[in-house]
Amino acid sequence: MASLLPFSLPKPNGIRATSSPATTISVPEALDEKFGRKGIKFLEFNNVPFVELTVRNGSSTRLRIPDAHVTSYKPKVYWKDDGFEEVLFTIPAGGADSTKAKGGIGLVINDLSDPGSKGKPLLSTSEWTVKDVDSDAIDALQVELSCTSGTLDITYVVSLYPLSMATAVIVKNNGRKAVTLTNAILSHFKFKKRSGAAIQGLQSCSYCSHPPLSSPFEILSPAEAMKTESPGWFSFGSEAEDKPGSWTQQDVPFTILKNKLSRVYAAPPEERLKAFYNTPPSKYETLDQGRELFFRVIRMGFEDIYLSSPGSLSEKYGKEYFICTGPASMLVPVTVKPGEDWRGAQVIEHDNFARHKTMACTSLFSPNFIPISTTTPAKHSVSSHPCLHPCRFVHYYNSKREFPLPAVASIPYQPINVDYLEGEFSGHGVTFEGIGDSCVAKMGLENGSTATLMLPSGLISSYKTPMWHGGTVELLHTSVSKGENGGAVIQGGVSLDFDCCSDGQVSWSPHNWTLLGVKGDAQESIQVELISRDLENMVEVKYILTLQEDVLSSEIVVLNSKSSLLQLRGSIHA
């Protein structure tokens, strides 16, 4: 079975799902008749239709159709038969409609197109329609909703898998003018206790205090989220939040959420004008110490990450604690031109009952150097697959956490003739761009897969692969800082760290790579071959990168032309 369903669903006429009662046949019955299948069940509570998705292992999610509100996500997180846990925090919204709730997962889109506008909500009066469903042997289920707001067609897709759920949005502009939007997919996660709530994965990210986008699903309003918390026992030893507009870089690996905060993690708008700047990671983890559970949140298409915790205000809503977080485009609005569309998505995934898999993945990519003795060409290869597999995300995350990341700009290089590279090697799906004394080689396939290679350092700084919602996701994390000489120092990505040692203990490391050749095309695959030589010790190392539709592979070939032994010690950092 494919790890993710294709996004290109059939386009039948939708069935309108509102809270108005039907005259002859109920809305759930009509939906079941047209879209019902194993694992997809349409329900009705107080004349309001819901859809519930349940995959083979019992994991389930529930969606309130009229307002596209995800009110429940219960994945299987323990091996025992009843090992299901509710992930989302919800409370009754109050009012006449008892089915309405606050919290859960909500889509927020605001229109800032009018001059001076602070943002007009686009979805508050929208009427959602069930457009289609799809499934794959009840191991992957998908429901597609749609609505119209002015000249915009909005599609919202909710997908469920055994170890994850995803929400994706597509905004299509059918008008004659560009529209400017702020948007977010905000999730309210449940925690057992206030003192055991944290986020991992935001170290070195820039953030500032900022209110959330206003939403009908909000538990705390923007004003409440930004209100300063009174000193108390939980505030002892904590630092007050900076004033809005003041930027800070997080220098600790864990974001403790017992105190009240409301932040946006993002590249400051002025930083985005530079050639290189740091962006938030594409994924981070929520840690629930009380239930010993973690969930990985993955953003796609959105530029920012919103995060808030209620502090002592949580006591108003019961004994359990909650946070609000998710991908967003808040600081710099998204512009959608006429005839174009914008896409974004969030994935929540876990491997809580597969800790042995986590340990296995970590051991496979141990940072310990393994010596290799050889008198013949030695080959070492590593492949990275883009599927959203929990094991592979642990690989990327643990590598970043355990390895000391090499600063590629700390090694002096000779300037590269970009015009020569463009004239000699273009036409195979690779383009070249000069940045200072370095060069960026961009590999791109027609299916949307791309990889960015820095020359002459050999650093892979970006690998993006197309996803089911039609956009792409960045699988690598890099950071950029200012070096001692004023140049950019790039860390992270995929880099090589090798030493070649002869019997006489003469050590040489291949750092300065030369482009040897480019093969393939943008239709199927692109292969870039680099070479680095030590003429004195007669050692030659080739670095071969191959970009295919669903795989980026890195391969090392070492040629020892001497008669004596050569020891190869090193690793590939990802």
Write the layout of secondary structure elements.
Elements (H helix, E strand, L loop, with lengths): L14 E2 L10 H9 L4 E6 L2 E7 L5 E5 L4 E6 L15 E3 L8 E3 L1 E7 L8 E2 L7 E7 L5 E9 L2 E10 L2 E10 L5 E13 L5 E4 L5 E4 L12 H5 L21 E2 L4 E3 L4 E5 L17 E6 L4 E8 L3 E6 L11 E16 L4 E9 L5 H10 L7 E3 L3 E7 L5 H13 L15 H8 L4 E6 L2 E7 L5 E6 L4 E7 L5 E3 L3 E5 L5 E5 L2 E8 L4 E2 L5 E7 L5 E9 L4 E9 L4 E9 L5 E8 L1
Antiparallel strand pairs: 1-10, 2-3, 3-4, 4-5, 6-7, 8-9, 8-14, 10-11, 11-12, 12-13, 13-24, 14-23, 15-18, 15-20, 16-17, 16-19, 19-22, 20-21, 21-24, 22-23, 25-40, 26-39, 27-28, 28-29, 29-30, 30-31, 32-33, 34-35, 34-40, 36-37, 37-38, 38-39
Strand content: 35-45%
Radius of gyration: 26 Å
Please give the share of residues in helix: under 10%
Largest sheet: 10 strands, antiparallel
Output mean pLDDT.
Answer: 79
Give an overview of the whole structure:
The protein is mainly beta and 574 residues long. The protein has two domains: 15-349, Beta-galactosidase, Chain A, domain 5; 356-573, no CATH class. The protein is 8% helix and 44% strand. The chain contains five helices and 40 strands. A hairpin with an 8-residue loop joins strand 8 and strand 9 (120-121). One of its GO terms (biological process) is carbohydrate metabolic process. GO terms for molecular function: carbohydrate binding; glucose-6-phosphate 1-epimerase activity.
